[in-house]
Amino acid sequence: GNAPPGVDPEAASWFQAVDADRSGYISVKELKQALVNSNWSTFNDETCLLMINMFDKTRSGHIDVYGFSALLRFIHQWKNLFQQYDRDQSGSISFNELQQAFSQMGYNLSPQFSQLLLARYAQRSSNPSIQLDRFIQICMQLQSTTDAFREKDTGLVGNVRLSYEDFLTMVVTRMM
Fold it and tell me: Across residues 51-80, what is the average pLDDT?
C-alpha cells in the first residue's frame, strides 16, 4: 500500500507489519512487540505506554499511522543520542556514561541519583547498565518533571515550596 501524505513510506510499511490485528492503530502491546533494545530484549511496558501517550492525540490508548511515523522519528532521535553517550559502543549506558549524559544535557545530578536510577532501571548484573528503552523513559520523565519544577520555581533559584498534594499532582499529571 501507498503511504498517506506526510508519512514516510518506510514508517507506513512498518506500521502495516506492526498492526497485528489490522485495526488501523498500534496498541501498547503491538508497539512492545515491534521495538527491541541492542540486547534483543523488547521495550518495557512503561516506556511503550509513555510513548503511545505522547503521540496519542485522541487519548484513545493507541496511535494511527501518523502518530506511529512521528514516534519512529522520536525514537530515531533518542537512539542517536543514546549512541552518542554509549562511548564504549556496548549497546547500553553504564554509570559513567549516564553521568556524562546528564551533565551534557545540562542536568546537575549527583552520582547518588544516577546510582539510584541504575538500581531502579538497569538489568540486575555485576555491571548494571541502561538499555535504550529505559534511557528514553528516564530522559522523558526527567524532562517532564524538570518542566513541572520550573513552573513552580519562577525565580529559578533551584528550590520550591509545595504542598504534598501539589507534589502528587505534579507527578500524576506528568508521569502517568
Answer: 92
Cell 503511504 sits on residue: 3
Q: How far is CA 1 from CA 5, 24, 68, 101, 172, in A?
A: 12, 13, 16, 41, 40
Query: What is the chain's mean pLDDT, rounded?
Result: 90
Cell of 61: 490508548
Q: Nearest CA to 100 among 140, 69, 130, 122?
A: 130
Q: What integer is the mean pLDDT of 94-115?
A: 94
Q: How far apart are CA 26 and CA 16, in angstroms?
A: 9
Looking up cell 506492526 gives 18
Residue 50 sits at the vertex; the CA angle it makes with 46 and 56, to the nearest 5 degrees, is 140
- Tell me, rounded to whole angstroms, the distance of Cα 42 from its chain centroid: 14
The pTM is what? 0.84
Q: What is the DSSP string of 38-62?
A: TTSPBPPHHHHHHHHHHH-TT-SSS
